[in-house]
Amino acid sequence: MAFRWLVNAILLGLPMGTTVGVLRGIDIHRASIGQSPLFDGSDSDLIGGGSGSGSSTAADDDITPGDNNITTSQYCQKSLEINPATKGTHYIFNPNQWGWTEGTEGSLCMNISTFNNHTYATNTTAPDFSVTWQYPAGDDTAPVHAYPNIKLSSDNLPVKLSKMKSLTMDIEWSYGIGTTPVAATNITSLTTNLVNANVAVDMFLDSSKSASQNSTKASFEFMVWFAMIGDSAEPIGLQQGSLQTQVLNNVTLSVFFLCIIFRVCPQLTCFLSDLYAGQNDLEQYVLTWLAPVTTEKFSGDIMPLFTAVLEANNATFPTSDDYLGSLQMGSEAFYSNVNVTFSVPAFSVDL
Ligand SMILES: *[C@@H]1O[C@H](CO)[C@@H](O)[C@H](O)[C@H]1NC(C)=O
Ligand SMILES: *[C@@H]1O[C@H](CO)[C@@H](O)[C@H](O)[C@H]1NC(C)=O
Ligand SMILES: *[C@@H]1O[C@H](CO)[C@@H](O)[C@H](O)[C@H]1NC(C)=O
Ligand SMILES: *[C@@H]1O[C@H](CO)[C@@H](O)[C@H](O)[C@H]1NC(C)=O
Ligand SMILES: *[C@@H]1O[C@H](CO)[C@@H](O)[C@H](O)[C@H]1NC(C)=O
Ligand SMILES: *[C@@H]1O[C@H](CO)[C@@H](O)[C@H](O)[C@H]1NC(C)=O
Ligand SMILES: *[C@@H]1O[C@H](CO)[C@@H](O)[C@H](O)[C@H]1NC(C)=O
Ligand SMILES: *[C@@H]1O[C@H](CO)[C@@H](O)[C@H](O)[C@H]1NC(C)=O
Ligand SMILES: *[C@@H]1O[C@H](CO)[C@@H](O)[C@H](O)[C@H]1NC(C)=O
User: Fold this and answer.
1) What does the pLDDT look like over 30-61, one tens digit per residue?
2) Which domains does the chain have, with CATH numbers?
3) Of ligand 4's atoms, which has the minimum distance to the CA of residue 130?
4) For the residues 234-244, what does the mean pLDDT come to?
């Protein structure tokens, strides 16, 4: 048993951490090679696929008065930064198929629905997006093919943890078999079709401002997993057991105890999560808050997850002098026998 655990940790746990680190490296490299101004949804080079990489940035002055239409654009590139225009908080999208080689089996396309008037429901609301993908099982040592994601682009980053008062998020997502978004996630039907993936917010921290924005250099990776689908996707430290449990969103004492005892939140708004931690082979400490029950909707402040870590008095954890440098949300795509669609109809971050 102990031997199996060790094997799992080596084959599954460690490479996962590495791969997340590596993909961050790719993102940062993309950012460093500059951006070409392109994004109006009518650019035929960008719609319906093609390959290669680069970036796509919006201009903020191309609004036609009275045009409240919604434009959906599809991106099937291996890697591409898409920066839609908005009057509110900016977000950068990337299909980010970093663990896939063009021309080999498998595919991933990301659809983004942008408002032509650049005015979303709130100042922090992101455009809706969905991702349809299918990959065969990869190498055990490099099982992740892609991390299609949305990234917060804010002048408030990096932020010192001692200065961070709250980190409020609204997230709504679904995962389903097929090429169209499903209304509700059915984990049984996903695992029956051998879907292996997660749904996660991924953040990086360091005592240096610049290193906190570099995913390979940062000392800490800090994640919140809303779902763990299939046997391949598991956070570092899972096999060692949870270090602590938190219930978020202003719950009463009785709700708190129900949550802790039955391992399910009795009300829709509360969020139960367990902390796992360990080191990846880039020697970064990876801290993961994992919801033991698939959580398709989250609305609230995740600051208590940072506070709990700061108060844990563990020498391998971040301190209040560290900076949060980047924040992304997406799904790590391991493999699937069939096409699956990950849909994110609501996302916003207020920092
Ligand atoms: C908005 O979409 C409708 C339906 O596709 C189209 O008829 C109309 O011309 C569009 N409006 C603008 C301003 O592009
Ligand atoms: C912008 O377009 C969206 C999508 O059609 C619409 O819901 C919203 O009301 C529009 N906002 C303004 C300020 O016109
Ligand atoms: C949204 O941002 C604009 C410009 O920064 C600001 O004037 C407005 O008050 C903000 N609205 C809300 C609801 O925060
Ligand atoms: C994404 O966009 C393409 C092209 O418009 C469309 O064929 C496909 O059905 C869309 N996928 C989803 C999941 O909405
Ligand atoms: C989920 O999928 C399984 C297997 O396909 C099916 O038996 C079950 O009825 C589904 N559950 C719901 C709530 O649709
Ligand atoms: C991030 O850190 C790595 C490792 O130290 C370095 O090779 C890379 O150039 C850095 N990236 C940026 C954009 O600074
Ligand atoms: C928490 O819930 C209590 C009782 O439901 C309410 O009075 C209080 O205002 C809430 N606090 C926050 C921060 O939402
Ligand atoms: C401190 O964190 C490490 C992971 O980085 C973990 O292995 C260890 O058990 C933690 N120590 C305590 C006392 O929780
Ligand atoms: C998945 O969907 C894409 C696009 O619709 C299609 O080209 C591909 O053949 C599908 N793959 C499988 C395994 O069904």
Assistant:
1) 333 322 222 322 232 332 233 344 555 555 56
2) 51-350 (2.60.120.180)
3) 13
4) 95
